[in-house]
Amino acid sequence: MTGQDLPSLLPGLLPRLWAFALRITGDRHDAEDLVQRACVHALERVHQWQPGSSALSWMFSIVHTTWINEIRARRVRSRGSLAWDEADVDAIPDFQASTPEELASCHQVFGAVDRLPEAQRLVLLLVAVEGMSYQEAAEVLDVPIGTVMSRLSRARRTIGDQFRNPEGQPRTAERTLRGGSAAGAREEDA
């Protein structure tokens, strides 16, 4: 594929780009603006696209960079925040969930992901949700692959801890060090 193919590829990429933008912005209107700006940037800089590389990875990188620039601009203007609004999470439909229990579980997962530090959240979204390889995520975020692996590991551990210890109890290893039984810890981890 070449840069000349990008205009014909963009319509097929828009749903995934918009979903990614919605996850990182937390706002439907910001996501729409972000995708539009990213597409304009891509079309203006189509000559920078490496032949043979993934158009989707390249576009994710542009979306991410464009959002970082927007955050910096908002900080300068002092008129925005990075916090997700719970109403925005509620606005994301989950057609897979059919029971109230499944919907509640989805909201718990969204909440756990939302509480992650932004760097971990972005890596988790790219790898677990968008299905990118570690290498692709590293290229999108412009960080070493080891950083992607480390952030993903910490994100998974943090989310797992939130579901294993919903009342904010210390992790199993911490309880064992405080005098809890090792046998009890193994039962809980199983």
UniProtKB/TrEMBL annotation:
Lineage, opening ranks: Bacteria, Pseudomonadati, Pseudomonadota, Betaproteobacteria, Burkholderiales
Span of the signal peptide: none
NCBIfam families according to UniProt: sigma70-ECF
Any GO BP: DNA-templated transcription initiation
Region (Disordered): 159-190
Keyword annotations: Sigma factor, Transcription, Transcription regulation
GO terms for MF: DNA binding; sigma factor activity
Name under which the protein is recorded: RNA polymerase sigma factor
Location of the RNA polymerase sigma factor 70 region 4 type domain: 112-158
Family: Belongs to the sigma-70 factor family. ECF subfamily.
Residue ranges of every copy of the RNA polymerase sigma-70 region domain listed in the record: 14-75
